[in-house]
Amino acid sequence: MKIITRDERLVQRAYWMVGHRWLAIFVLAAFTWLGKNIFDVDLHEKTLYLLAIALIVVNLISLWLLEFITHKKDINLYKSVRLVIHFQLICDLIIITTVLHFTGGISNPFFIIYISHMVISSILLTRTGAFIQTTLALLLFGILVFFEFKGILPHYCLCMENITNHELYKDPYYILKTYAVFAFSSYILVYVTTSIGHRLRSQEDKLTLALEQIKYNEEFKNRYLMRMAKDVLKNTAVTQTNLSFINENKESLPEKQEKFIEISLNRTRQITNYLKNILYLTTIRLNSNLHRQVVSLGDIIVEAISGQYELAEEKDLSFNLDLDESVDKYYANKVLFESIFKHLIGNAIKFSENKGEITVATKDKLRKIVIEIRNTGMGIPKEEIRRIFEEYYQASNAKVKGIKGDGIGLSLVKEAVEKHNGKIKATSRPEGGTSFVIELPKQK
Amino acid sequence: MEQKKILLVADDPDLSFVYEAILTSKGYIVTATDITKLENHIKKGLFNLALIDIDDDENNNLPNVLHLIKRTKPGIPVISLTLVDEISIDTNEESHEKVDLFLEKPINPDSLTDAIDDILSKEIE
Hints:
By secondary structure, chain A is of the alpha+beta class.
């Protein structure tokens, strides 16, 4: 899980503003065209298109500034992004006021659009910043209305007969009433929005802190587990090597002792495998970089089968290999790939009934390599299939049949596949047969 | 046939003991040492192969041992015994370059001698 910091959140929101401005540019251009060509409104078409271009310029400058800031080191990202947001909002307000001037001034209900910027500034800026932006918006709007009223600036009407009262800009009572209500509502709105925004931001910060703590705890747990598994494994490795050495020279031992050695060796191997899986899993989780090399999928699959052939032979299982040569080579971590196939083929063998069939197929599928490992063994109940990749989860019917596992294998497989940007899914029919499908991105 | 000489470097005396027992039982001449006496041994002796079992821990012992062996005897093949092939998982490229073969512990005696024979036969070719 990726934790988004306060700074990253603000950067995302600044980009969000840029994205929505593209939409606003389109809407302004489209309305101008529709107003002029469809509704026959007397618009200053060229000026409005020029203002749309001005918005494009603002967006491009904002994008450049954001790119520059986010790639620059030794900079207070939070403060810098806030300045860019202020810049965007100020430019927007100037352009909105100009658009209003050319589309009827106070007689155009479009002036309500200022509200959207007040809300945005309340969410993205501090309370003071939001109030400054709101005051600026009201000031610009006030100057426009006053100048048009006094005739300092010409008034451009929207000129749609019977729809708009063209003389409203001259009516002092209407201007005062509208402006006062608008200003009062704006400040109330900003106060309420900044209060809510502040609470949400504080919740967001708490959540980020909690997530960081979870991440730290998870890392601590993995380091602890890795250390513990390593320490125990060091000792079991000595014991297992000793037992293997004695076992190879067992002819010199009395028969009963030979059996003791065999049992001890088997049990030590089980512990070792379990610890190795923990060590693999924690190593994958703690390492962002993997050592990669070109591996042959075919070789790894064949090796995984031959390493576990004894049990397959005992069950009289048959293998069906359908390997596509064109996708044989893959740039991957060899150890993890060996582990993926060792576990999946091992499970296919373990959960197969006698005389069953195991199919391993690799296919080239557009931009993916698809690998399927399928058996004809006992299925997994439908409601349990999505849980089988969880650590220490074992399907209920496997428990009933007394099939043992360390409960880590499939979690390890999933994480190893994901570490190679792949996906794994399992499908099963309750009456029998389970299939694991791995999808890996094709490499050049 | 000439007996091959193995330089065994292990930081666990118990493991060193069992590796030595395995290798001598298969007819190799083994010089076992720990890290502290390695420099002395490697300068004095002639070896066909170095077998190392050193923890790749925070003390940087493994890279130091590999560096010392490759600096003193550049041509000598090296087998490194690792606990769960962790070096092959992460990106310790330097160790990869200096080691001819990584073997995962616990070691099966036959696998160990097969691996040594395999590397030594390649050296002769």
